[in-house]
Structure formats: structure tokens, C-alpha cells
Amino acid sequence: MIDLHVHSTISHDASSSIRDYCLKAQELGLLEIGFSEHLDLCGIDPHYGLHDYQKYLAQVKEARKEFPDLAIRMGVEVTYLPSIQNKISEFLEGKQYDFVMAAVHLVEDGAISVSEEDPCREYFSRKTADECFQEFFDLTLASVRSGLFDALAHLDIINRYGVNYYPDWEWRPHYGVLRKIFEGMIKRDMALEINTSGFRQTVCRPYPERDLLRLYRELGGRMITIGSDAHSAQELGSGVSQAVALAGKLGFNRLVSFERRTVKWVDLKNQERPASG
């Protein structure tokens, strides 16, 4: 099994080391693990500048020596904003990442985080649902069109807290921008992540939801990754078997992984052995 979205203590909000994850991966029988440490380059983001690339690279190299039978991918989850696109491009140049994922966490040019409860409450209190979701998806489309990324993380993560304010939110009024997102990804060979953290949260479903995954598939999308978005080793592999089953039902027959930013295809049927969690 593969879990391609994992955060270690290299990220500001995680509690387990890279070695802890590798030991847990062995216990679970995972074949591959993808670290996707946060990269925050917006100057007003409180987590700005915390990504220590050299420390990260050194720890991955150590882990690869200690765990030679485990494929360890060194990825990064980049908080995207159009205003810092050039800064992101410059930072990524020459780095030894296996994959680079786009993530929209900030709106209003970095002033508000939709991934944190209090800022999200403020955001939804002064805008309509359509305004909030449209801004979020417009930023997501911009991240796709930037051409900087190999994959898109948790497409509709805005629902993590948005569900508390708009529990009956419907994505179809935003069909136009969502279609452009998917078509842009397909054109650029950019993978769509099935992020299983939603199974552990109020929404009780993956990001994106089933119908959006179906739309991506109907538009010709084939490239998917699966990640638990674990922030502790105890969460590693959580929900992955559910996501694999869902992907199979929707007609996907392969997963995507990466090595030095080159796509590696993995048969979905080889991922069907369930992991704990």
C-alpha cells in the first residue's frame, strides 16, 4: 500500500519523526510512504520560513539507508497564492523533491486561513457561501494554471470547517470553475489527490467528495494519488483502504506515485490489502 501525504516534525503542525513513520510503515506493511512537508512562503503567514529543506533532505537520506526496503518519497505541500508564485518557483529550483503538491490554505491574499477553525469562522461570517467557495476554487484554478505542481492536494478542503456554516453546500453551482480545474490538470498531467483526512473529520468523507471524483473521471482524468494527511504516525494509512475501494468503484485502475518528479504508475489492485485505521 501507498500513503503519499504524510507530515513529520519537519512540518510545524506534526508530532512524529520521519523515522517514527518508517517504523510504523513497516508495521503496517506499507510499500511506499510519501512525506509532504509544508512549505509556506507568504510573508504574513505565521508559518512563513519554517520549512528547513537541508534538515529535511538529511533526514530522508538517513531513513532511506535505515529502511532500504521501503520506498521513501520526499515531497512538499506548497501553500499557493498568485502573489507568491515567482517566489515558489525560485524556491523549488534545484531541489531534490520527488513530488510537489499544490494546496490552497489561504484566501484574501494570505490574510485568512480556511484550514483553521477561528479564521474560517470569520471568513464565512461575512460572505455568502458562493463567494467563499468561488474565491477558493478560483485560487485552486490559478495553482493548476501555474504549471508548478505535480499534484493537487485536498481539492475541497474548505469544507473542513465550511460544513459547520453551510452544511447543505452544493458544488454544482461552481461546475464551471471545477471543470476548468480538472481540464487544466488533465492537460498538464497533474494528479488529483484523494485525501482521506476527511474520514477523521466532521465531513466524514474524503477530499474531494465522491461526485467530484466522478466528474474528474468523466472528463478523462486518470491520475490519482491517495494520502492520509497524517500528522502523527498513528494516523499513517488511515482511510487509505477506503479510498482505494472508492477509486476502484469509480473506474480508476491505477494510482500515481513520483520519483524525482517523474510519474510512476501503480496498479490499483495491488493496493487492496487493508491497513489498520
Q: What does this protein look like?
A:
- This protein is α/β, with parallel strands linked by helices and 277 residues long.
- It has helices at 18-28, 53-66, 85-92, 117-125, 129-145, 159-162, 175-187, 210-218, 240-249, and strands at residues 2-6, 32-39, 71-79, 99-103, 106-107, 112-113, 151-152, 191-195, 224-227, 254-259, 262-267.
- It has a 7-stranded parallel β-sheet with strand order 1-2-3-4-7-8-9. Strands 5-6 form a two-stranded antiparallel sheet. Strands 10-11 form a two-stranded antiparallel ribbon.
- The mean pLDDT is 94.
Write the layout of secondary structure elements.
Blueprint: E1 2-6, H1 18-28, E2 32-39, H2 53-66, E3 71-79, H3 85-92, E4 99-103, E5 106-107, E6 112-113, H4 117-125, H5 129-145, E7 151-152, H6 159-162, H7 175-187, E8 191-195, H8 210-218, E9 224-227, H9 240-249, E10 254-259, E11 262-267
Helix pairs in contact: 5-7
Quaternary structure of the protein: single chain
Number of domains: 1
Mean pLDDT: 94
DSSP summary, beta strand count: 11
Overall body shape: globular
Question: Can you summarize this structure?
Answer:
With 277 residues, this protein is α/β, with parallel strands linked by helices. 34% of the residues lie in helices and 19% in strands. The chain has a 7-stranded parallel β-sheet. A two-stranded antiparallel sheet has the order 5-6. Strands 10-11 form a two-stranded antiparallel ribbon.
